[in-house]
Write a structure and sequence with these properties.
alpha/beta; seven-stranded parallel beta sheet; three-stranded mixed beta sheet; globular
């Protein structure tokens, strides 16, 4: 039996490859990379062949291939899920596999799941900024979140498995991720370099010819740059490798990927200023998306809530993000240019 640590990861290609590809690239550059055996689930056989050249063992399949997922998890010491934080069947397949791993080894494997600060969302509809700030070190506060909120069904299933004693679970909740990923997997055409949330707003704004917001755009969200988010995962992984029992896990194992916060109005105003400079709008001032525009351009999306949070656990890992709101807003001009060059698919589901 190999003495290497087996890490299984999903979501390293397609739209989801923005986060997963960044994490995998960091793992391949990790000081302990030679001690890792990495397997990755992906749908594209061509990209699977490319991954082999990086020393990654590809498993060609989708999130609906429960048997393949369960088998991969049963062989893993650590599973990192980034593909779809609302895909319950694949989550259950991972949990079944990790339970088999525990039964075979007597050691609780680690499950690092990518959720999102959408789990904190309220129903503000862009009309007000909330005073409620969630703390990732306050499990009672997070347990009170409605199960009907985004991502909560999967998150609570994973926490229940930790409570059952056969895994150690760690939930990472990224916020609005910004910046263009630049690493070896992007350059090889394997991973996605673009975010999801702001290209959605930008593409809808370009289609209507003016920057748009939900309601007044008064709601507040956190943000984080993609490279710094990748660093958070590495910090968490390092802590788990050193002593997983010492890292908050289960109901206490939340880690917010949040560096600073912004209002949706501020973001859309920055988009508007870029649109004016690029000749795509005459006025930089955002106006409210109409009901018809939301149905036509933004079906399945909701960027109208508050999701304010404090990343106590993440900072306790030694994570020190440097890029804040001003950097995020400045990044939106090249993001608008990117959406003009390659329009973003608006009918895909937010992950």
């Amino acid at each position: 039996m190999s003495s290497k640590i087996t890490i299984h990861i999903n979501g390293v290609t397609a739209l989801q490859g923005y986060i997963g590809g960044t994490i995998l690239a960091r793992l391949l550059e990790h000081p302990k990379a030679t001690s890792f055996r990495i397997t990755a689930l992906l749908r594209d056989p061509v990209k699977a062949e490319k991954l082999k050249s990086f020393g990654v063992e590809p498993i060609v399949g989708s999130l609906d291939d429960a048997e393949a997922i369960e088998k991969a998890a049963s062989e893993a010491d650590i599973v990192i899920a980034t593909a779809d934080c609302d895909h319950l069947p694949s989550c259950h397949a991972i949990l079944r596999g990790l339970k088999k791993r525990f039964e075979a080894t007597g050691k609780r494997p680690a499950f690092v799941n990518t959720s999102g600060t959408g789990a904190l969302s309220d129903n503000a509809q862009g009309m007000f900024a909330s005073d409620v700030i969630y703390d990732d070190a306050n499990p009672a506060q997070l347990e009170a979140l409605p199960l009907t909120n985004m991502h909560r069904t999967v998150d609570t299933a994973i926490i229940a498995a930790d409570d059952a004693g056969y895994i150690l679970s760690y939930l990472v909740l990224p916020s609005t991720i910004w910046g263009w990923a630049d690493h070896a997997l992007v350059r090889a055409g394997i991973a996605n370099h673009r975010s999801l949330q702001m290209p959605i707003v930008i593409s809808a704004s370009l289609l209507r010819g003016r920057p748009g917001v939900w309601g007044k755009g008064a709601s507040v969200w956190p943000c984080v740059e993609i490279g710094e988010l990748g660093e958070l995962y590495v910090r968490l992984l390092d802590a788990v490798l050193e002593d997983p029992e010492k890292v908050p896990h289960g109901r206490e194992g939340y880690f917010f990927g949040a560096a600073d916060e912004f209002t949706w109005y501020e973001a859309s105003r920055a988009v508007g200023e870029a649109m004016v400079k690029l000749g795509k709008a005459k006025d930089a001032e955002p106006t409210s998306f109409t009901k018809e525009e939301i149905e036509e351009f933004l079906s399945g999306y909701d960027l109208s809530s508050n999701a304010r949070c404090k990343a106590t656990h993440s900072y306790a890992l030694g994570w020190q993000p440097k890029k804040m709101k001003a950097d995020f807003l400045a990044s939106l001009h090249p993001e608008v240019e990117g959406c003009i060059e390659k329009p973003f698919p608006l009918k895909s589901r937010v992950l």
